[in-house]
Amino acid sequence: MNAFEPPAAENPAAENPAAENPVAQKRYEGKAKILYATDDPEVLLTYFKDDATAFNAQKRGTISGKGEVNCAMSQHLFRLLEAQGVPTHLIDCPTSNTMRVRRVSIVPLEVVVRNIAAGSLCQQTGLELGTPLSPPLVEFYLKNDALGDPLLTEDRLRVMGLATPDQVQQLREMALRVNQVLSEFFNQCGITLVDFKLEFGVDGTGKLLLADEISPDTCRLWNQAESDPNRRVMDKDRFRRDLGDVEAAYQQVLQRVLAQSV
Ligand code: 5GP
Description:
This protein has 7 helices and 14 strands. By secondary structure, the chain is of the alpha+beta class. The strands form 3 sheets. Strands 8, 9, 10, 11, 12, 13 and 14 form a 7-stranded antiparallel beta sheet that branches. It has a 5-stranded antiparallel beta sheet with strand order 1-2-3-7-6, covered by helices on one side. It has helices spanning 17-20, 66-83, 119-125, 154-159, 165-188, 237-240, 246-259; strands at residues 26-29, 33-37, 43-48, 51-54, 59-62, 90-95, 98-102, 105-106, 109-116, 132-142, 151-152, 191-202, 208-211, 219-223. The radius of gyration is 18 Å and the shape is globular.
């Protein structure tokens, strides 16, 4: 039997996957993914959902096929990053929407890298959409929905005991290395990497690993073949801003990504 049974919403027959399969114990359910324990305490199974949320879950919907796109794309990009010396939590993908990952303790920060001004940066600073940011901007947000994921300063990070100056430096360097590798890769796909969010975790030995996912849910991606500011959008902004053709955009991104070997 497969080590994973989809959750009840996907498979009504399996009301409680854990009851049918002792290795599928749900550990944590987030907005876009569910984490299951496996028979190996050092390995977790991530199930990628089609559920989509935006604006701190005030907007909810479904993007058909999103789970598979995000899983396949994350796997491809994690392999690329591993090959370029960035350690990640990826082990492998036993099915099209599940990923086995190394158990880590998640650092409660969202690390955002921006190459071009968009989204909250424009809303909060008045910078014009599309302004190039060189060198790229690295920002730290507290991963806390109840507080609305506030932007943190390095002093706040220190005061809150979230990261020492050395750890902040390590996160910044890893995020910038990821940006370098991904920007070049997406460029080869005819896509501009505008900005993205990363999450990190610490493994049992204290090593920092790139965790979570890299997908159109977590990146802003603009089609270089389109100049129209709405038509060029290939990411979750299509859902956030009701631009339509969300599924087609996700599939197009995946096709282009998988067409480039790692
Ligand atoms: P912004 O701060 O402009 O809303 O987001 C910057 C980048 O980080 C965008 O690519 C956005 O998709 C990603 N991002 C920021 N916060 C989150 C979050 O809570 N969830 C997801 N999926 N992406 C986020």
